[in-house]
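haha ok so turns out i had the wrong file open the whole time. this is the CORRECT one, sorry everyone. sequence first:
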Amino acid sequence: MLLPKYQHLQEPDRYIVLLEDIQDIHPYYITLPQPPKPEKIINFNLLKEQQFFKKITIPPAIRRLNLLSRNEAKSIAQKNADISKFVQTCWQKRQEGEWQYINGKPYYFPGNYWWYLNFYYLPHGSLPEFRVYNLKYFWFRNFVVWNNPSVWGSLMFTTRQVGKSSMAGGELLEYVTKTPNAHCGAISKDETSAKEFFRKYIVTPRKKLPWFFQPIFDGNLSPKEEINFTYPSKKGADASDFNFDEEPLESKIDIKALTTAAYDSETLRSIVVDEPGKYANVSVIQLWDRLKYSLRAFNGKANFITTIEELDRNGGMEFKLLWDNSNTAQLNELGETISGLVPYFIPSYEALITDAYGESIVDKPTPQQQEYLYQYYSKKGYAENIAYKLSHIGAKEKIELEKQEIKDSWQRIAYTRKHPITIREGFISSFKNCHFNLSKIEAQLEKFVFGSPYTLRRGNFEWKDNKPDTEVIFREDDNGKWIVSFLLKQEKANKWRLIGNQRHPEECGNYTGIDPYRFSKSLNGSMGASYTWTEFDSQIDDENEDNSCWLTDDFTIEYINRPLGIEEFFEDMILQCVYTNSKAYVERNATEAIFNHFVERGYAGYLKHDLKAKKSKNRIIIEEKATPGVYNAGDNVLKNKMFNEINWYVNYCIQRCKFSRLLNQFKEVQYEDLQPYDAFVAAALARINANMISKKPNINLRPSVKKEKTPDFPIYKPSIF
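then structure:
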């Protein structure tokens, strides 16, 4: 119990919840070390307003020893009781940490964060400032990652100006300079970036460490890629700086440029993976699979750090998948996530505005914080009225006000990524070469960040009782090839008629597009893809209700797969078309064998033919072309049709799209090269199929088209993007 004059001080709380108020991530529950008695906590005797983080004061006598060789400094220290006691105290705090009162609140500083604040010089030449959000990150690394044998490392996803690189470099340097026989490393995206990281966050800070935190090293004063904490060569210029009777750590720290083979077959204690969201040419997932084995022997830990704003298209997708596989809500029997990593996120409002004590000002500032902020903004040169206004708003309100001022949608998306309040916002893309309305695509994709919000069924279309050419059924299977959002009832499926020796569907408003793959023994390459479009059905959906909830007037079936045998893919397409009573509009550039398969199996009537107009006796006759499908999706005329159809879909129907892979391909597709975008091609062909002129009269417009006039899309010109 505190005496009355100390009632302004809070009781220490050992039980901490990290990320408690962050959406889409599970909180971490940690227990801090037992605190000392309140009067033993630093700053206890100071007034609350005077309790700032207290750095250790290095006596002048010890500073002077830094000018001597390490061997000479150590010899003097051993003969001086005061110096020896100071060095011993520093080492104790580095190992055990310490408690301090900051503005009335007791905080525990882990030993490596205490060392970081007191001895790790940043690239601009000064020591770090205390920030509560950085302290929480060190709590996370120490108590969630390092103290848990089921955790292989962490993923840190955050904005700029948080200090992620310096904190990662500081943690790595602190560990390797005290741990015997430890190999620590770092990976960056290329050789230049690797050397820059090593110089700024390892080499330079190590040189500025006081002599008592400088382990014996190899004598190389300007290392480019590696520091060895071992005896220097006796022939080296700095060999006399060390006592060869003292045992070196025999540890080392190095840096490597990015390859999937980096640190392959090496044994690591700790590894920093710098900016994995920018790895465009190397799979970060494959890299992590290899690094795991390097860390296994000593239960080493990884530290993946990436900047939200810097996510590369390909690297960003890989990082997102790794993030999804690090969900702490999905643990195996060993208590591990799928990846073995655990995620950490610092929202932009945590790091945007802080008070004099290092506390984040998220919501409305307190009067004490308002006074501090007013002085801060005034010194920055803001006009009095502006300084006053800024001093009365917190980070969340400031972010929202700045966002409202941005009228351009591209710039607003870019700003949101730079200043994400949620993890979902952090994964929003800012690809300026998107050919469609990116804000609408992103708004729909945001629903999928942590799983589908829709009720989808995965399974397989099969012949009933395994008897071909009878009745197709849909059987649910967690490993199935198809994903469906809506299916015809069994009694309405499998409707066909026989014309000659070929079956033809009794069409009922379903239209399928197919993008086959070219057969190859290689498992790499494009996938086979198909989508079925289902026209509006008033018995299923109400046109007077919110159309974002409609099941029909949308893509309802997705197939993205690459069976080992091409004939299996052909048969899969027959099954899909037979069940849905739909004709398939097929891109046949990859292979024409699919048509032969349909004909040989007696399903030629399920192939959609292009239509052509023929003039006869002053009349226009619409008739089918002789060959089904379309020959070349790379043809500009067909490309324009495809892009215009998807442009229409994005503008009017995207709010109910239930397939995230398709949404991502809408965002990423490139007009010049459609080969990697199998889902886009198949979906576009389904839409062309559904919108194709029919020889039948009295075409009924879908309700969604009746309600709002469809624009006349201009011929697609990629040069304008």
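Residues 235-240, 520-524, 694-721 have pLDDT under 50 and may be disordered.
again sry for the mixup
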